[in-house]
Amino acid sequence: MNSAYLHIDHVTMNFPTPTGEFCALDDVNFVINKGEYISIIGHSGCGKSTVLNIIAGLLEASQGGIVLESKQIDGPGPERAVVFQNHSLMPWLSVYENVAIAVRRVFKGKKTRKEMHEWILHNLNLVHMDHALDKLPSEISGGMKQRVGIARALAMEPKVLLMDEPFGALDALTRSHMQESLMDIQEKLNNTIVMITHDVDEAVLLSDKIIMMSNGPAADIGQVLEIDLPRPRNRVRLANNPTYNHYRQEVLSFLYERQSNPLSKKSETDEGMSEKNDVSDEAGVVESDTLATDNVTQLSPIDNSGKAA
Amino acid sequence: MALLSLPFTQQGTKINFQDGFKQLMIPITAMVLFLFAWELSASQIKTSLGLVPGPIEVSKQFGNLVTEHYEERSKADAFYERQVKRNAKKLAKNPNAKVKIRNYTGKPTFFDQILTSLVTVFFGFLVATIIAVPIGIISGLSQNFYTAINPIIQIFKPISPLAWLPIVTIIVSAVYVSNDPTFSKSFIISALTVTLCCMWPTMINTAVGVASVDKDLINVSKVLQLSSFTKVWKIVLPSAIPMIFTGLRLSIGIGWMVLIAAEMLAQNPGLGKFVWDEFQNGSSNSLGRIMVAVLAIGIIGFVLDYLMLTLQRYISWDKNAVLR
Description:
The complex is a heterodimer.
Chain A: E1 6-17, E2 20-32, E3 37-41, H1 48-56, E4 63-68, E5 71-72, E6 80-83, H2 95-106, H3 113-126, H4 142-155, E7 160-164, H5 172-189, E8 192-197, H6 200-206, E9 209-213, E10 221-226, H7 235-238, H8 242-258, H9 262-266, H10 271-288, H11 293-308
Parallel strand pairs in A: 3-8, 3-9, 6-7, 7-8
Antiparallel strand pairs in A: 1-2, 1-4, 4-5, 9-10
Chain B: H1 2-42, E1 46-47, E2 50-51, H2 55-93, H3 110-141, H4 143-156, H5 161-175, H6 185-211, H7 215-223, H8 228-266, H9 271-281, H10 286-315
Antiparallel strand pairs in B: 1-2
């Protein structure tokens, strides 16, 4: 435990409400090694984003704390860069300037003007956005905006890269493109990444370790799943890989059987939610058949429809 | 591709032309109808100064005002020319003679008054902006500061310019004492009254604009650990620009209205004084001349608003925003 790079040390989070304290997280404790890609998965409202915001320093834990490289963190900082769900680019700054504002802040006095310029271009090149340097965020697509958001975070050379449902607002096709780009980048840079997601495929495909969270209030870590798949990983080839499908199914059964969606119980009328229920039913069928490949190929389109909603 | 799109663009411009024609014809028709109704109803009302002037009479009076302006200008030119000649003669007799040019002291024309009013309103508005925007930014950033200053704003906001005027007059008379004043006292009084009345909309709108900056962008600035100045300059101000301009447009509109009232009551030079003088004059032309002034006030108000809108288009980053 001493060798841990990032330690989320027994974090409890209480929010004050008019009706008393609301306990969002109860004693969340895990460690992340250097260069590891961690996904945190759970139903909405389980406190995933709270964990990320505490690591980022945007929220302060009620109890416990975050230790990065044996130092307790105190407030937000560029060494823990965040990629926000809705890109969070300044709409009045061009693609180049959006990255530049971060680079100028982080490398002031460390890089010359020319080096900074090259570093900005290098990072935009990494996410394949070097063709739109002078475009405003309103002039590029959602996926491109998120690419620039990732470039901005990478350009800070963070010790930990935090991503809050980075592809959550994108359509399924763009999302898979982005996941592939991210895997390419990760192969080159080997960053330490913590990603929040609610997408099972995304979690299994990208991560070294999946942290599954129980439902709130007082959410906790339900299960930690090590993903031992060789890299580079290929989505199409993995589709029929029994190990990959086993991991997927582990996550699915955790999410939909042991921790059924708290929202779907309350409102069956919500279309998206009821579709998610269908998925969980299908997942149950798959489990009883113990990983027959036929069933698995059947499952993926159904799962996709659930995501698209 | 170019060939394919050609018929479409042609069609498009045709539609646009038709649209533009319609957009132009509707207001013109309305304007003609309005002038017609004015002419008809005006001739029905008899006042102590004769019939209420219709648009034709008013346009004649406007012509008179233009002629008067040029007459006054040529008088002034003649006055200066005479002085120059006289001085030249004096110097020819005695090279050591002291010569000086006296200022022309004729009465300001309608157009002089417009210029005075415009300078005054711009000055008052500028001072109001310089005060209101920073206070607005601070109260948008700090909830405590806003809580502290809000009751003061709410109390001062509804005060009429006519109520401010006596206070401003007395204070300016006491404080602004100078042997060689750059600005006349009446100018300072009018401008300060404008300032006092028109800074509130800018202040409130700036505060609201600053307070409603996207929380994610604030988070970005926190992660980047931007300095307060960079945060305000790069994140807060650009996102608050539309709201600030809404405030500025309200402010300049109020300022212009306030100025006319202040000039009228305080007899400070400007359009308000022109209206009041004509009212006191009571000739058969007065009503028509007042109407010229009223129309001028309206048109200038419209132009001021349009200028602010143009400035907003120029400064704002969001070139696609629909501004009304």
